[in-house]
Each structure stands twice: as C-alpha cells, then as structure tokens.
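Q: My labmate handed me this sequence with no annotations at all. I'd like to see what the chain might look like in three dimensions before we decide whether it's worth expressing. Could you predict it?
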Amino acid sequence: GAFMSEEVREIMTSSGMSLWINADLDLLWSRVKSKDTRPLLQTADPYGTLKSIYEARKSTYALADMTVKAKKGLSIDDMAERVISAMRSRPDVLESIDET
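A: Here is what I predict for the chain of 100 residues:
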C-alpha cells in the first residue's frame, strides 16, 4: 500500500523507477485465499475485501513507471524474467549483464 502515497511515488521515480506487477483479481485471490498472513483480508468476506482494495488501488498502481502483466501458471522464475526483460528496455534503470 505504500505506493498509494504520492510522496512515496515521487521518491521512487526520482531515485529509480516504479514497476507494477499487474495481476488480475482472480489471480490475486488464488494466491491469498488460503493464507492467514494478510491482515487486511481477515474479514467476514475476504474476497469482497480484496476486490474493494483492488478496485480502489489499481488506478494508482497504474501510475507506475512500468507495468508487467502477471499471468496464471507462470513460475516465479518466468515472472522474474518478464520483470527483468521489461527493466532492460529502460537502459537508464538496468544495464545489460553479460552472462558467461
């Protein structure tokens, strides 16, 4: 939720960049529905709460300098590769690394 703060967004942009991993509501729900480590979802209707939070925040998250779409079925490594690939498109952010 820190990105909801305009001050935080400005600091991130001035010192680097912000990146939103955009996962749709169903994907987010599949990842959190069996976890009890999300205090904001400890409600009588956790799905409804998640949906409200998602709807309230997504337009602000869309202000990120870069967005990478998350897709169901991607492994952590595959998603990390998508993020790195997107960041490589910004030479001011991530330099290419020779893999030898």
